[in-house]
Amino acid sequence: MIRALRLFIVLLVLPGSMAYADAVTTLKAQLKSLQNLQPISGTLTIQSTRTQGKDPPVTTQAHLSIDVRDGPQGLELHFPAALLRRVRAEQAANAKQPNIPEPTLELLTGIDPNQVGSMLFYAPALLRKMVGATLLKQSTVRVHGATQQLLEFKLPLKSSKKNQDGLQNYRGRMDVWLNPAGVPVAVRQSISIAIRKFFVIHLNMKSRTTENLLVWKGRLVLSQVLQKTQITGIQANSKTECYRFQPTTTSRSTPPTATQPASAALPASASKPLRMEAAASRPS
């Protein structure tokens, strides 16, 4: 009787567990297939709004556009002359009056080639994010009328023991939306953490990143990224950055394949995340 009861429980739980494993396995297989090394190029536009201080807070805004290219020869970033003239003008004004901000220079020096490279070759980056992640939930959702699968992950704290000193209340989550073929169409990551050291350093940090994806020339590409970061405590500052990548097309090339309906993309203002409507909870 007890053995039969155990068997019944296993059979009851097994279908859902298999569905979970199948969804993750399908996602990983798709990511491994979307790593074509054929060169791609396009325009990367970055917009930034930063607020620093408390009494009173100072807000600066900046934007820039650069040409980017990625291929077997490596990653190339091209900074146009007009952008460099704008930076020099900010530097000249700041030399005369140090209180004058240099937002374009700050945004330019903050460009991370590794981050840009990951945008143009995103499949390996998403696979790395999934290392050590725990699948919490799988559900079917409706995104502007289209049916998609939503995978909700718990992210581990990836930091050495030395760097974890003083870190508290860590929480990391990642949501991945998949189209019917198992190709990721959007990713949302949220992280919150507190830093406490020597009864003096007291900081709380929250970040939220929403990413829209497309398939271009056989590789998975981030078409738009919205990242919001807020720090409170002995320091107070916030930053909102939006990255948009527009691939270069030719008369002979096929337009980029969006992995989600155009209506599901981030709005032009990049002020709101994707709107998701839950259609079901866990698979039965």
Count of helix runs: 5
Percent of residues in helices: 25-40%
**What Rg, in angstroms, do the CA atoms define?**
22 Å
Question: Mean of residue pLDDT?
Answer: 82
Q: How many domain units? A: 1
The end-to-end distance, rounded to whole angstroms, is: 25 Å
Largest sheet: 12 strands, antiparallel
Question: What does this 3D model show about the protein?
Answer:
The model is unreliable at 4-19 and 260-284 (pLDDT under 50). Strands 1, 2, 3, 4, 5, 6, 7, 8, 9, 10, 11 and 12 form a twelve-stranded antiparallel sheet that branches. The protein has helices spanning 2-33, 81-96, 103-109, 113-120, 122-130; strands spanning 40-52, 58-71, 74-78, 134-143, 146-154, 167-178, 184-197, 201-216, 219-233, 237-247, 257-258, 277-278. The protein has 284 residues and is α+β, with helices and mostly antiparallel strands. The chain is built from five helices and twelve strands. It has one domain (36-278). The protein is globular, with a radius of gyration of 22 Å.
